């Protein structure tokens, strides 16, 4: 059996000019990054004319058995193309952290991939490096300001900005810097986040123009004075230089699927610690070019889809026409208590126990957000007819159809059934609404997410979180959406609670404002903004030969 990277390396790619032409772009609209990648002008999203229909792909709560959400997204787009639809894909960029950590490559899989997969997974067009540089420039200017006399009166004990690097490096979570005395800086406690968890990443992914980007950057709060007044990047006069570093990174990246479908891959905030969606400019540009735009949101629907709908759609004025919820029988059996070593055997009892996880995600999409949905079962050869029949039966109880997807093995051909159902759903009337009103107090918004989306009973707050909520509301930040930082492995804040737990309490241990992005972040459980590498990192299997051919990248 061929690996993902072998399939990708054997593919014959269209020149990016031909992909651009297929999407309705002229050479004046693009900037070449070699033969297979291009940046697209920001002006394209301002074109006159109606937008295409937006299709969101989300998933059940992830397990080690995998769901194939990105693979399904790409295969669905190729399926739509095969049935004659004008379609564009809009995906997130992979972070180097997971690429070298647990997941390996993140550009789809099998015969449903975006290519060139090696470039997309490793550096790509340099967007993440630019984001890291802009973030760390702000950090350098902040510390230099303090060293040079601290005219703004910043309290070194109340600095909220952290440095970042696009790598899983637990050693950098908590550090002390400025050591050595004299001209070596002012000693203070500091730390690093992974780049995809930085506010600069969120800002870039929500900005709609260079002027909007600069305004958002200027609003980033870096810390507080001893009197409790916020200090911003604008106060440090850093926003202009940061924006200069990001001017090209803001332009969306155009690539293609294995079947030549145009694909935007741009931005990549994590969904468990950030808002988990590709950039607004990529999505809006795609909507000007395609009659159908297929996009994804990270992790399960309780994280990625919730933030896509309550944050991104709210800010950008987007309204999905349909939602696809991806599941595998294998993962559902794990949610029902089956061991990973036993997933190849028929187990209707475990499947029955695990199905409530899928059904809650589907119910949230239909009943909380008012959107039409279809379940895409990413079928494995070991799935039995009886198991598939059980999934279909239970989903029909919610009035939701189930489509079998074989896009990993067959590419777009294996997504045609799903494509036809998505087209049907896009023609249905829907009553899209948000989970909460953004004008509610911060606590009420958090509690709405916990009770309506997660199925929890209530929320507990640490004294630190209570104090910070009160302070943020006093400073005028109460009327913003909430970005929940939570484990991706459970509806609750406890990763061990599989399936569809109820009656639990979510503990919010810390709250912070991302003023540039425009939302409040609520950190729950033991969620970390800087992951670590596993005992055997994926990096150990990655290599390159003397001809520059990469191997081991998934």
- Oligomeric composition of the shown chains: single chain
Q: What is the share of helical residues?
A: 25-40%
Class by helix and strand content? Answer: alpha/beta
Q: Kindly state the number of beta strands.
A: 25
Kindly estimate the percentage of residues that lie in beta strands according to DSSP: 15-25%
> For the terminal residues, how far apart are their CA atoms?
13 Å
Shape: globular
Q: Which stretches are low in confidence, meaning pLDDT under 50 for 5 or more residues running?
A: none
Largest sheet: 12 strands, mixed
Radius of gyration from CA coordinates:
23 Å
Please tell me about this protein's structure.
The structure is a single chain. The protein is of the alpha/beta class and 554 residues long. A hairpin with a 5-residue loop joins strand 24 and strand 25. The mean pLDDT is 95.
Helix and strand arrangement:
Elements: H1 4-10, H2 16-22, E1 30-32, E2 38-40, E3 53-59, H3 69-82, E4 87-91, H4 96-100, E5 108-109, E6 112-115, H5 117-121, H6 127-147, E7 154-159, E8 163-165, E9 175-177, E10 188-190, E11 192-194, H7 199-206, H8 210-219, E12 221-225, E13 230-232, H9 239-246, E14 253-257, E15 262-265, H10 280-289, E16 292-296, H11 301-316, E17 322-327, H12 329-335, H13 348-368, E18 373-378, H14 385-396, E19 401-405, H15 407-410, H16 416-426, H17 442-454, E20 458-461, H18 463-474, E21 482-485, E22 505-514, E23 519-524, E24 543-544, E25 550-551
Parallel strand pairs: 3-16, 3-17, 4-15, 4-16, 8-11, 17-18, 18-19, 20-22, 21-23
Antiparallel strand pairs: 1-2, 2-14, 5-6, 6-14, 7-12, 9-10, 12-13, 14-15, 22-23, 24-25
Helix pairs in contact: 3-16, 6-7, 6-9, 8-9, 12-13, 13-14
């Amino acid at each position: 059996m061929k690996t993902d990277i072998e399939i990708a390396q054997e593919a014959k790619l269209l020149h990016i000019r031909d992909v651009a032409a297929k999407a309705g772009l002229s050479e004046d609209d693009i900037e070449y990054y070699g033969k297979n990648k291009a940046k697209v002008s920001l002006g394209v999203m301002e074109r006159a004319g109606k937008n295409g229909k937006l299709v969101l792909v989300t998933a059940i709560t992830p397990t080690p058995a995998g769901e194939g959400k990105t693979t399904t997204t790409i295969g669905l787009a190729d399926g739509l193309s095969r049935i004659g639809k004008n379609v564009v894909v809009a995906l997130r960029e992979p972070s180097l952290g997971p690429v070298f950590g647990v997941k390996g490559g993140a550009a789809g899989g099998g015969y449903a991939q975006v290519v060139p997969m090696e470039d997309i997974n490793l550096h790509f067009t340099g967007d993440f490096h630019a984001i890291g540089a802009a973030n760390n420039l702000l950090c350098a200017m902040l510390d230099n300001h303090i060293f040079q006399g601290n005219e703004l009166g910043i309290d070194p004990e109340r600095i909220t900005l952290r440095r970042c690097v696009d790598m899983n490096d637990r050693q950098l979570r908590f550090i002390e810097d400025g050591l050595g005395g004299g001209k070596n800086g002012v000693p203070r406690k500091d730390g690093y986040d992974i780049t995809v968890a930085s506010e600069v990443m969120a800002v870039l992914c929500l900005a709609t123009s260079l002027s909007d980007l600069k305004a958002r950057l200027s609003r980033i709060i870096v810390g507080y004075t001893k009197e409790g007044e916020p200090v911003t990047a604008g106060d440090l006069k850093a926003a202009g230089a940061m924006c200069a570093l990001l001017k090209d990174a803001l332009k969306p990246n155009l690539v293609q699927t294995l079947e030549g479908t145009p694909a935007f891959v741009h931005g990549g905030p994590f969904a468990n610690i950030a808002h988990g969606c590709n950039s607004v400019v990529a999505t809006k540009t795609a909507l000007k070019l395609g009659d159908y735009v297929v996009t994804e949101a990270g992790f399960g629907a309780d994280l990625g889809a919730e933030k896509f709908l309550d944050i991104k759609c709210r800010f950008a004025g987007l309204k999905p026409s349909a939602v696809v919820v991806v599941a595998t029988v294998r993962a559902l059996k794990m949610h029902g208590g089956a061991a990973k070593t036993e997933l190849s055997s028929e187990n209707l009892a475990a499947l029955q126990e695990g199905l409530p996880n899928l059904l809650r995600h589907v119910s949230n999409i239909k009943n909380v957000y008012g959107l039409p949905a279809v379940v895409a079962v990413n079928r494995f050869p070991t799935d039995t007819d009886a198991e598939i029949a059980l999934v279909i039966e239970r989903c029909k109880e919610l009035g939701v159809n189930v489509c079998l997807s074989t896009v990993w093995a067959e590419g777009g051909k294996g997504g045609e059934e799903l494509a036809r159902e998505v087209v049907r759903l896009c023609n249905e009337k829907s009553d899209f609404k948000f989970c909460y009103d953004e004008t509610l107090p911060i606590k009420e918004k958090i509690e709405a997410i916990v009770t309506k989306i997660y199925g929890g009973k209530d929320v507990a707050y640490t004294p630190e979180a209570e104090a910070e909520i009160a302070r943020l509301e006093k400073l005028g930040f109460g009327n913003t959406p909430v970005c929940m930082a939570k484990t991706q492995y459970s509806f609750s804040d406890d990763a061990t609670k599989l399936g569809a737990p109820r009656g639990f309490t979510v503990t919010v241990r810390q709250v912070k404002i991302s003023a540039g992005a425009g939302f409040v972040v609520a950190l729950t459980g033991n969620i970390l903004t800087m992951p670590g590498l596993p005992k055997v990192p994926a990096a150990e299997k990655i290599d390159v030969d003397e001809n520059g051919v990469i191997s081991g990248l998934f």
